[in-house]
Design goal:
Blueprint (H helix, E strand, L loop, with lengths): L1 H26 L10 H23 L5 H9 L8 H22 L1 H5 L4 H8 L8 H22 L11 H16 L9 H13 L10 H4 L1 H19 L4
Helix pairs in contact: 1-2, 1-4, 1-6, 2-8, 3-4, 3-7, 3-11, 4-9, 7-8, 7-11, 9-11
Length: 239
């Protein structure tokens, strides 16, 4: 369990370094990737997931996401006793990864006046703030993620450790392109909450509040979506 805990810390850290890193590259001033757009962000996140799964999948399964951990436990593919430890590791890794991104882009944070863009590097912000709609969007997107992961790694599919991570990366890329517009597709409580805490405590010049009134949605909704996905996949005999 100790090795798996460390692996989840490292895997989630890699995810956030590359994922939040691509957001910083696109939205912060005087970055070479500034204004390169949503395609770059979604591609970067898809590749981030792929690299993180390659890094630690052989040790911990590379959940790197509390929603995936809960979904696998609901599907009977992961022990519930290990869920708290995995989630703690994922939160820690996400926080560390966000700090690394801040260090890499420290001068660009200082050169950026828009406080909303600074927050967007760390956590998701809805385009239209409507709690019910935002919650539903995150439930749907995470449902697709967890159902997709269960299907990709189903024994009959024959996905190997070599190209399984690529398939998951394509899944996350697809979710971002198709369902990411309304909320920024957190689909991962650790991905949103860990960096949001980092935003709150880091000495970022000109930052705004960390939007704690919205923060519960990208934490709770993905868990709901994961549970529904596990019930759906198991209930229809699709696992």
């Amino acid at each position: 369990m100790g090795q798996a805990f460390l692996a989840e810390v490292v895997g989630t850290m890699v995810l956030i370094i590359l994922g939040d890193g691509v957001v910083a590259n696109v939205v912060l001033n005087k970055s070479k990737g500034q204004n390169s757009g949503w395609i770059v962000i979604t591609t970067g996140w898809g590749l981030a997931v792929t690299m993180a799964v390659y890094a630690v999948g052989w040790i911990s399964g590379a959940h790197i996401n509390p929603a995936v951990t809960v979904g696998l436990a609901m599907a009977g593919k992961f022990p519930w006793a290990s869920v708290p430890g995995y989630i703690a590791a994922q939160m820690l890794g996400a926080f560390i990864g966000a700090v690394v991104v801040w260090l890499a882009y420290k001068d660009h944070f200082a050169a950026t006046d828009d406080a909303d863009l600074k927050l967007a590097v760390f956590s998701t912000i809805p385009q239209i703030r409507n709690a019910v709609s935002n919650f539903l969007t995150e439930v749907i997107a995470t449902f697709v993620l967890v159902a997709g992961v269960l299907w990709i790694f189903h024994d009959s599919v024959g996905i190997t450790s070599w190209y399984g991570p690529i398939a998951v990366g394509f899944l996350v890329w697809s979710i971002g392109l198709s369902l990411g517009g309304p909320t920024g597709y957190a689909i991962n409580p650790a991905r949103d909450l860990g960096p949001r805490i980092a935003h709150a405590v880091l000495p970022i010049p000109g930052k705004r509040d960390s939007d704690w009134g919205y923060a519960w949605i990208p934490v709770v909704a993905p868990i709901v979506g994961a549970i529904l996905a596990a019930i759906f996949v198991n209930g229809l005999g699709l696992w």
